[in-house]
């Protein structure tokens, strides 16, 4: 029997409860003094559907509806705009739905302790009838929809989401160790203690997949979370499973794990922290034309399609579309990523670095990306011009590259502190034709095909006079100089590197130019497979030797060309 949730009458109680639930910089029921702008009803759009109107500064006062026992919604349910549905924090409660759950008000899932479980489960979902697209709930596309002024206040028991040493507090949880030995791209294993480090002395990432708040479909029917709200959201220490309907099952455009869709400034202040999205059939975390969102300590485990993604950049008559601004990915993990049977899109990646301003990815990891030469842990696509803060990230044990860049622009992109090891291709595959990237402090060890593939030549740019690579540790691995398709503007410069070999494979190219400063290279370290006769490779070593090698194989002594 389905019982109506118990109402707690009185606006005063509701306001006290909701204000107490607010956290700094995170979603809450009240929005006071916000500078954000968004649509007021989640549907008013112009041009490319970008949110346009302003959030009201007045706090929202909702009537609290206390849910004290399990509930079933065979036809789905709508949480009205003036209600806050609160699962009893002292009781384990499961909400089961076979239709859409639409949040116009507030859904609160905040267990009082780790022993209490709050679950929203979608059962009987038929992925084959999903239609995708649109800005509003679709009856066939069964999932959790947060619309209008709707808000989620979801906070499971706080715990260490992942780390490199087994936490005794994880006892009884499902903890997976990432693969970290050569040639292993899929070997995620359940562990109850810290495994030994590998031969490079790198430990494996340990991923805790257990949470006491869960949103899930079933193995036979995947669901999704779609957020188009004027208010920020809080989703912390929750697990989403069997979400993002599977590629090939239907047209599932826009139906992802957590899809924050065209909220504009309405999403500013949203916090997605300690969240696991696992066994997902499509993208996991998607900020799409939505600003001011922090993703911290998140895990995408066993995912099909890019895990951290937004719609590819583009422009219309009003300017950029699909851009998201002020996005933070910090300590975010991709662990196990493929396309399955859905195709062989060669640019698959763990982190798709799309368009916007003030974008950050730090202290994050891509491991277990499957399947192809142009696939990668981290991707700068050709269609994006965004400058990301990229610091202290890792890509290892991917059947792909660590980083793949395919851009032509003069922006000053800085990659600072990147480690790539045991990838099946190279640590960094850098293209396309010319740009002014700055790589600093890279460690690229025992990637099967080599350390770096260099396609792009240097380009003059504001704040940077060329493309520069500095402090590159490879333990004697190979730099491949590949073909060039544009006229030379500036040489590519390597400073303080330890390549053991430079292999030149300029197949049907225009001439290139490379400078090597304090890299310890000698003429015998250059292997000319195919080169343009006018290509120039200058070397200046710490021991005072300075020479120039050209594509025809000739070597001449020259004057020092670099003064620091």
Question: How is the topology of this model organized?
Answer:
Layout: E1 6-8, H1 11-21, E2 63-67, E3 71-73, E4 77-79, E5 83-87, E6 93-97, E7 101-103, E8 106-109, E9 118-122, E10 144-148, E11 151-155, E12 162-163, E13 175-177, E14 189-190, E15 206-208, E16 213-216, E17 225-229, E18 234-236, E19 239-241, E20 258-264, E21 270-273, E22 276-280, E23 285-290, E24 293-296, E25 299-304, E26 314-316, E27 319-321, E28 327-330, E29 333-338, E30 349-352, E31 359-362, E32 365-369, E33 376-380, E34 388-396, E35 401-406, E36 414-421, E37 426-431, E38 434-435, E39 438-445, E40 450-454, E41 457-458, E42 467-473, E43 478-481, E44 492-497, E45 501-505, E46 513-517, E47 526-530, E48 536-540, E49 546-550, E50 555-557
Parallel strand pairs: 2-5, 3-6, 4-7, 5-8, 6-9, 7-10, 8-11, 9-16, 10-17, 11-18, 16-19, 17-20, 18-21, 19-22, 20-23, 21-24, 22-25, 24-28, 25-29, 28-31, 29-32, 30-33, 31-34, 32-34, 33-35, 34-36, 35-37, 36-39, 37-40, 38-41, 39-42, 40-43, 42-44, 43-45, 44-46, 45-47, 46-48
Antiparallel strand pairs: 1-2, 12-15, 13-14, 13-15, 26-27, 48-49, 49-50
Structural class: mainly beta
Number of helices: 1
Strand tally is 50
Strand content: 35-45%
How helical, in percent, are the residues?
Answer: under 10%
Oligomer: single chain
The low-confidence parts are 1-57
Radius of gyration from the alpha-carbon trace, in angstroms: 26 Å
Average per-residue pLDDT, rounded, comes to 88
Report the major sheet: 28 strands, mixed
Report how far the terminal alpha carbons are from each other. Answer: 78 Å
Rough shape? elongated
